[in-house]
Amino acid sequence: MSDIVAFGSGYKGGTGKSVLSSLVGYTLAVNGRKVLLVDLGEYGSSTNLCLEEDPGPPYLSDFFWGKATWRDVIVESSYSSNLWIAPSSKEQGPIDAESLEYLLDNAGNYVDYVILDLPSYPGTLLDPIVLLADIIVLVTNPDRLSIIAVKNWISTRPFAKNKLKIPVLNKYHSLLHKWLDKMREEYGVVFPISFDPALTFTFTETIKEAYSLISKRTREEVMLLVQRINKPLLKVTG
To answer: What is the model's pTM?
Structure first.
């Protein structure tokens, strides 16, 4: 069975979950691991980053509505033979945890990792989805509101105590080191991912293109995060 990795930040949007989940998924894929990226977002951001064009229906929402099988909605990315996407449309509709678990149980027999690109969500709406994950990547930005939002989100989820939690400070710059220090006080080990123009997608369009243009430092930081996800013996936490 595959390991299930959820990228989330609770109710805080705009932290870069889709970019980071796509980047980690692509990095794992080009390094020989088989990856399924499940786009649970409302706008299909990771779908757009990881596929050359809109695959058209059926989308993941069609599976949740019972209009397609789990096999029907999985699309191979042309950017890597090891990367598959369960794509989102502009109308995601209800996200059913029981149906998603069925998809993960079946697709998980064919891949090493399933990455869940979670949207921001109010209250406990998608907690049953996060519960399916083995690893929760906590995506924060170097600002007070983002760090507080993620802390409040994960600290109020009882099930999170039994998950491997990997805190990431995304869009980091060394001038903002005080936020990295604050996160280290809270979590201990924190994985900073530097702000990188290639990941703003102003002059890049795909995750493959962005990966080829990110700085050496950013690539090394992403690889450290990937290596942490790759260590199965460290996935059992108190």
So the answer is: 0.94
